[in-house]
């Protein structure tokens, strides 16, 4: 468990380190339309419910000028980042904007500064989200690898087991303690009733018995049913014990592929546009919630 957390932390640190140089960057390309000229981001007078009827650029979703990109969660995140920027001390904001003005080219027009905006927190947020997604990818790798090699209880029951089944029992039963066998047999108590209730194993709706039949009580179980249940429980415990031992042997080998998957995701150049561009915030949010949803879906 410690190595899992260490792998997630390592992936997050590497992902953040790789993109630290994007934090001082300016707004670029579509960032101006998504943030600077977007009233849903820059104006507190725009109601929050407007995020549900406006597109990613602040236009009505049903208008002819809208290209129907609806991302209300991303726009809300932009709005919160803008409010966080305005909540910073005034002298901090002035120092950041003055330093940025000295690095601006002569022909560049800083419309963001005129509106009291700065891309510092937007880029910083993207780096943090990318680090979080990289850690989640490492966790997803562990999650999938564990499910691939998790112990599975195989229930192999028959009144007359084959020779191979008998060898499996004799070979592995010697490795189990008396308590493990007793627990396995007690766990399979319900299996005996299911195995001997009917020949087909399918529960059928029965008519209520007559008073005379009910007075006699239930029929005695067929001979040998307890033996079948015991063998069934022992075999299930045998297979589960072997699978658990195999998983314990293989689990240390899962760290290398899980770490590799998380680190490869963290440094892959295909993510550059999503992390370096402010509008890529939508992809980062989508990736984070998609990984969580995928794990919940598989687990459920």
UniProtKB/TrEMBL annotation:
One of its GO terms (biological process) is endoplasmic reticulum unfolded protein response. GO terms for cellular component: endoplasmic reticulum. GO terms for molecular function: mannosyltransferase activity. The keyword Transmembrane applies. The chain crosses the membrane at residues 127-145, 250-268, 274-298. The keyword Repeat applies. Keywords: Membrane, Repeat, TPR repeat, Transmembrane, Transmembrane helix. Residues 188-201 have a biased composition (Polar residues). Residues 185-229 are annotated as: Disordered. InterPro entries: O-mannosyl-transferase_TMTC (IPR052346). It comes from the Eukaryota. This is Uncharacterized protein.
